[in-house]
Structures are given as C-alpha cells and as structure tokens.
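Email to the structure team, subject: P1, F-box associated domain containing model.

Hi all, the expression group asked for a predicted structure before they design truncation constructs. Nothing fancy, just the tokens so they can compare against earlier work. One-line instruction: predict P1, F-box associated domain containing, return tokens.
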Amino acid sequence: MATNEWKKRCETEWNIKGISMPDGVDWKFVYEAKPFGRNLLRNPAPHGVSQDSSPPERELTEFPPEGPPRSEPEGDYTGWTTSREDLGYDASGVPPGVTICYLPNYSWFTLEQRVDLKAEGVWDELLDSFQPDIVIKDWYEESQLHESIYQLQVRLLGTDGQTVISEYVMSPTEELSEYSHNWKEVSHVFSDYGPGVRYVHFLHRLKNKFMVEFFPTLVTGSTVLVKPSKSSR
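Reply from the structure team: attached below.
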C-alpha cells in the first residue's frame, strides 16, 4: 500500500483535522502502532487488582508469618523499575518511659516507567506544533496506614530524555478520622506544554508498613494516553 494510502487511513481512523501530517512520516508504522486512545504504560495493574472492584480486605493472621519479613507488595512488576526507601521505625506518639513490644516500620515503594512517544507512533510535528493532550490517570488504595501514603510525579521530557519540559506532582494528605477503604482516582491533562516533548516519565510512590505483618498500599489503572485532540482554552 502506498504511503499516501496509509496516511489517509490515519486521517480516517482518528478523524484528524488541522494537524500537520508530513509525507516523510512512516504512516504505515503510525497506523499499526495506533498511538491514540490507548494506554501507553506497560502492565498498568502490577498488583493484579482493578479499580472496578473494591480493594481487597486484609485478614490478620493468628500468628506472625514464617520466613523473612516482606519488604514490598506481591505483584508482577514487568515493565516497571522499582526501588524501596526504608523510613525507619515510627515512635511518634509514644510517651517517654513507656515500654512497647512493636513499632511500625514504614517504607516507600517506588514504581517508575518511561514512555517513548515516537516509538509508540506519535510523530514529531504532532508533538511540537499541535501538542495533543496527554492524559494521566492512576488509582491508589485508601490503606489508611499513614496520612501520607501516595505520591505521583509525571514529567514530559525532551529529546535527550533528561530535560523537563512540563511536570505534574501530587502528594495528597489522607483523612484518618473515619475508616474508609476505597480506590482514590488521580488524573491530570497536559496541554499546551510547548515543543520538544518526546518522552513521558511516570513515577508513583506507595507507603507500606511492617509491624509484625506487612501492610501494603496498592495501586492500579496507571495510565498515559495521548488524544488526537487538544483542550480548548
């Protein structure tokens, strides 16, 4: 099939209007990559749970688990780069001189992933001139382990994969006065971010607690999505 025919297919498939579509672009690759309207993150639910169902309830065991203590939630982390930061034991709120058997040990568990937009079929002129909306979504569990259990940092990076062109950061404070165990949605739309974007770096941190047993904070539905449109101002 000729290049112009692949280009026409792209125009029809995504109803592209007012967007530069140079002849030098490999339109067959773009059409087959289907860069619009799909999640560009790999493995968006590494803990095997979905925001469409309630977070799993945890059952305390009668005796402490055998074997070495866990340091991260169970899951399949294919596609993610993970790391752990130990925050140590939390003795806040313990009166002086009081003898205690256990203290909570908190840690941050970080998952990050970088999306190469060109490798996913998004072409230079689209990113530089039209600057389509880049949609970010995530759902984290109300684990109620601490007032700070989730952090999100998403960066739009330049051609060198290092220069930050735009950034979104979120670090919510949880309400612990009443019990609640649901998914909380986080969303953001990058628009009019300027020319030069080639990568999206997605990073979130989840707080876990170990006190006799391991108590994680779960996450699901992580999303990076490019639209063939842009927000109106």
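The chain has a mean pLDDT of 89. The helical segments are 3-14, 27-33, 124-130. Ping us if the truncation boundaries need rechecking.
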